User: Fold this.
Amino acid sequence: MIFLRHLRKNPYNNKTAGFTLIELLLVVSLLAISVGVTGDVITSLIRSYTKIQVQNDIEQNANFASLKLEKEIRNASYTLLPYVNGSGAMTLFFLNSDATKLICYRVSFSGGAGVLQRGWASTSGGIPGACTNYTNVTNTSQIGGVYVTCNVLVPGLPDCFKITKAPGGPEVVKVHLEFTQANVGYPTVSGTGNVIFDTSIVVRGTY
Assistant:
């Protein structure tokens, strides 16, 4: 007598189970695209943040320097250099509010980096011909630093400071300075951002 054994089909031996090669390739491709897009988005966000940070650093330096400069010029007794209604210069000379000090502002360059500096000298023995005791108003540090140059309105003329005076009017100091990124602090961004300080300040002591 022949017995027929009932064979149950093995569910794990199914030719249609699992992924085909095409499906695997499709999944891998989608993952690669997703990772690539995510990486681009992250890179873009980092660059955008860095540019914003650079611009903020420049604006903070420019605001500090311009406010200090503007306050002292406005409260000056009178100016000495550059000459009234003459050509511009990279250095400004004036006497403070009570004429006890000669105050000087200049843009000085060292290794190509421009720095705004402030100097002073006592007038107790008469008005000196130059200032001493110069200190930096801005800095060129790798992070958060700026370079300062004259915002030249007329090509070839370094008009950082220029003084004008109308007949019967007060002296007016025109300041043209440009603040730019110090470049080396943010390696992913090169030369982004600048602030131009271009203003006219009336010297109150000359009314």
